[in-house]
Amino acid sequence: MKIAVIGADGQLGTDLCKVIDKSDLVPLTIKDLDIIDPQQSRELLLKIKPQMIINTAAYNRVDDSEDNDAEAYSINAHGAKNLAVISREIGSALVHISTDYVFDGDHKSPYKESDPANPKTAYGISKLAGEQYVKYINEKHYLVRTSGLYGLAGCLGKGGGNFVENMIKRAKGGQQIKVVADEIVGPTYTMDLARKIMELMQTGKFGLYHITNGGACSWWEFADKIFSLLKIDIKVIKASSSEFKSKAHRPNYSVLENSNLKKIGVEPMRPWPEALKAYLKEREQVS
């Protein structure tokens, strides 16, 4: 099965390219394909004719989206629409990556796929619009919502870093480290996510899925665990989200329940502390 990975040099895209058989893989970066250009995208994908398209491309600078909402919408909504139209035309299935930011963050328990979306940011609105385009245009779709991504490649849209690397860098720089303790998340290792997406694709059961590592923690707890595993002796100061000024609203609670995976018999991913340990081990091996 020929699989085209859009955003192949990004954080998730890089790990997808590692788990897909090289004989099936067609890696595409922004230099190859720009999803906001429907004609160029159509010509290339018609030439390739993949059976599966995985779209990891996104405008994910949450704060910048408040001022650049047109650009965020162009990529996250219209770009997704373009791929949905093209994939339907060539008869391929489409995997589209979405986010916990489609929810308002007001829950006290994990969000299920059946819970109503209610984004409170321009970024979340643009991502929800992309979901809707994919959903109604191409019935052969896997909509995958995830959260708190970190992987070896880092996030291109955010300068190539991720939360784990940012914490380690700050610790090495001798900086005082204050981390939000009142925002609860489900951090997710992109290698685990990539493998689970591949597993999901084999089922042929299209639909909406939440896919994250198991469990939940505050950003402070996540940082504390990073330093504990690395045996870095540093004090991480608990902070309130109100102490950090940002243009975009940050959800107080954005944990995703992977209920639809369970319904189709796909095992949920391992707990986040185990995934973090695996990431740090992989990181050490390549350094």
List keywords for this structure.
287 residues; alpha/beta; Rossmann fold; six-stranded parallel beta sheet; two-stranded parallel ribbon; 10 helices; globular
Order of helices and strands: EHEHEHHEHEEHEEEHEEHEHH
Instruction: Find the count of extended strands (DSSP E, 2+ residues).
Output: 12
The CATH C-level class name: Alpha Beta
CATH-defined fold name = Rossmann fold
Mean pLDDT: 94
Radius of gyration: 18 Å
| Terminus-to-terminus distance | 33 Å
Task: Give the helix proportion (percent range).
Answer: 40-55%
- Percentage of residues in DSSP E strands: 15-25%
Low-confidence stretches: none
Helix/strand-derived category reads: alpha/beta
Please identify which CATH superfamily we are dealing with.
NAD(P)-binding Rossmann-like Domain
Shape verdict: globular
Q: Tell me what the CATH architecture is.
A: 3-Layer(aba) Sandwich
Number of separate structural domains: 1
DSSP helix count? 10
What does this structure look like?
This protein has a single domain, classed as Rossmann fold, CATH 3.40.50. Helix 1 packs across helix 7, helix 2 packs parallel to helix 4 and helix 4 runs parallel beside helix 5. The protein starts with a strand and ends with a helix. It is of the alpha/beta class. Helices cover 42% and strands 16% of the residues. The mean pLDDT is 94. The radius of gyration is 18 Å and the shape is globular. Strand 1, helix 1 and strand 2 form a beta-alpha-beta unit.
Q: How are the elements arranged and paired?
A:
Elements: E1 3-6, H1 11-19, E2 25-28, H2 38-48, E3 52-55, H3 62-67, H4 69-90, E4 93-99, H5 122-137, E5 141-146, E6 149-150, H6 163-172, E7 177-180, E8 184-185, E9 188-189, H7 190-203, E10 207-210, E11 217-218, H8 219-230, E12 236-239, H9 259-263, H10 272-286
Parallel strand pairs: 1-2, 1-3, 3-4, 4-5, 5-10, 6-9, 7-12
Antiparallel strand pairs: 8-11
Helix pairs in contact: 1-7, 2-4, 4-5, 8-10
